[in-house]
Amino acid sequence: MKSCEPVTPTTTFLAFLRYSSSSSNCNSQELLRDFATRELNAFLWISLIAITALLLRKVAKLFKLWAQARKIPGPLCSSFYGHSNLISRENLTDVLSVSHKKYGSVVKLWLGPTQLLVSVKDPALIKEMLIKAEDKLPLTGRAFRLAFGPSSLFASSFDKVQRRRESLATELNGRLIERASVIPTKVVDCIMGRIHKLMDKGSIDCKMVSQHMAFTLLGATLFGDAFLVWSKATDYEELLMMIAKDACFWASYAVTPVWKQGFWTYQRLCTKLKCLTQDIVQQCRRNYKLFCHGDGNLHDETANMGMESVSATPSCSCVEGPDNFFSNELNGHLSAREEPCGNIMGVMFHGCLTTAGLIGNLLERLVTHPEIQDKIYSEIITARKGLIKQDQQCVDKMPLLLATVYESARLLPSGPLLQRCSLKNDFNLKTGVTIPAGAVLVVPVQLVQMDDSSWGKDASEFNPYRFLSKSGNGSDLVLNTSPTGVAEELVSPCKSKFVLNDPNDNVAFLPFGSGTRACVGQKFVIQGVMTLFASLLEQYEIRLSSGSQCDLNPSMNHGVFQPPLSPKIVFVRRNS
């Protein structure tokens, strides 16, 4: 029997509230679900529109690039991948040589459907291009960033490096060049000690010798004499060369290849190099403090002079002290994103590679032209007369040596191509050609520096006297006579009627680049290499190793100088 409950107004009102609450919850959930659906659809539409706009923008830029490239002469491209197959089968400089002969001073090649390469050979256009194209290739910036961390000195964009480049140029061409002009005998002794050890194991080639000479010269100049007795210098040199071998390979990835085991091996090498760099910097500063504590008066004197006495005192810093070059110039005012000692490693890395190339070319020229070496030796002995300090070299009185350095750099520059780009803006050359932003701009340095129209009919021959002229007829007179014909008059500076021309007056002289991104250490490197070779040739004669074959007339291919294999050489001490 069912129990009957009386229906009262209270129970009716409670039932109504329960029904209203249930209905309200259902409506709220439906509203929330509908709102979420609308928001998701709106987000998807906005994303679709943004991605479509981005793709359309890229397509528009691609069509603009193709339209601009059509106005630049160059070989037809029948493949979607551009001329990469042609370039992979042949040397790029050879390809550019043939293209320039057929299409003129400005030619294009496609490295891919979106990557345009423009080569400029005319010296006047090269000068204009290098002034307007201020940026380095992104690949260069990535290579330095992966190896040494973020840097304000080796970034691709010129705007990011301009201030630091100016301060580095002031330092290298000012106080450090003073130290390079007084390279002590102990630097040569340090280099020769290592070379003699290598010679005991067998013959050595120019490449091996030049690498060690460049490394020791740059390290001793930047870090002082502490670098010469540093026990880890050999490890540092080996690490630097190992990193140089793989730097461009890992930088060529558009996305950092963290999934590859070899990349992490490369990163461990870079970490070791950073630790060693910090070690030599700290040791340099520590030795400097001990030296200053032992002789405060001498510290005050050298601080006022702006350099240390290399011959009389153990210089333990690069110039004045540990806090001026390293802290104020290279690593001064570091941002939170920059790597400590990163700029120092970059200077050592880039400086060693370029300087080693110049020294190697100079060694090859000296061993293959012994008559030039003999005349330089006579020039050194004559210039040494009257010098009070025996560890100094008066390189200003050695025009033949300097001309030989310039001629070696002309025939075999450190790299076959000079590369630039304009990352943001298009620019026009005076011929009316428009260079698109982002295009890879190259100067075939070997072709330009071997061009008969700029250097005469003997452009392919080694002739250091082309940089010398008669003092009475101005600096525009270029000598094209044979080395043996003029050298006799250069033996005695007091009787010499010849002076050295400024090679930069010839716009076709580009071993150190030109324009806004030219090498800031050009004067420093030339001065250091000259002083080093003056001290070296005074004590040693450089000869070809017995049984070593070296072609005195290297071959030419499409107007490009083909260097011989690195010859085996020996150093023979001269009879004093």
Automatic annotation (TrEMBL):
Names of the cofactor(s): heme
CDD domains assigned to the protein according to its UniProt record, in alphabetical order: cytochrome_P450
MF term (GO), any: iron ion binding
Key word Transferase present: no
Any matching Pfam family: p450
Highest taxon of the lineage: Eukaryota
Keyword Ribonucleoprotein carried by entry: no
Keywords associated with the record: Heme, Iron, Metal-binding, Monooxygenase, Oxidoreductase
Record-listed heme binding positions: C519
Similarity section: Belongs to the cytochrome P450 family.
Protein name, per record: Cytochrome P450
